[in-house]
Amino acid sequence: CLSASGYKWKRDMEKIRQMDGLASKLRTYRDASIKRYALTEGPALFSVVCYFLTENIRFMVIVAILVLAMLLMFPVASRIARDTDMSVDDIKNL
User: Fold this and answer.
1) String of b and e for 6-44 (b: at least 16 CB within 10 Å)?
2) pLDDT by residue (tens digit) across 1-57?
3) Distance, CA of 28 to CA of 25 (rounded, Å)
4) I want to staple 12 with a disulfide (CB 3.0 to 4.6 A). Which of 32, 46, 81, 86 is the partner?
5) Contacts (Cβ under 8 Å, ≥6 apart) of 73
6) Among 37, 19, 23, 32, which Cα is nearest to 94's?
7) Does the CA dihedral 7-90-87-18 come out positive or negative?
8) What share of the chain is helix, strand, coil (3-state, %, to 5)?
9) Run of H or E including 70
10) Are 94 and 25 in contact (CB under 8 A)?
């Protein structure tokens, strides 16, 4: 799911870079982010359930990796500006 979310993310970012208008870019960025987080959070929740059912510690390792990935995806102004080809000032003013 991490590779699928990365692939979908790159396609969505290409589409955003071609768009005009700050509000439409940020709206599309938000939608793309939600999809990316869902594709990462789903397997993490599934792994937690599997851990509680089997008590296999490998599932918790998977959860730790996915939680770390979600923390690295956390949206900050500089990352949003880099991904959408906008300035940080435009994003902070919104």
Assistant:
1) eeebeebbeebeeeeeeeebbebbeebbeebbebbeebb
2) 888 888 998 899 888 888 888 888 888 888 999 999 999 999 999 999 999 999 999
3) 5
4) 32
5) 33, 36, 37, 40
6) 23
7) positive
8) 85, 0, 15
9) helix 57-72
10) no
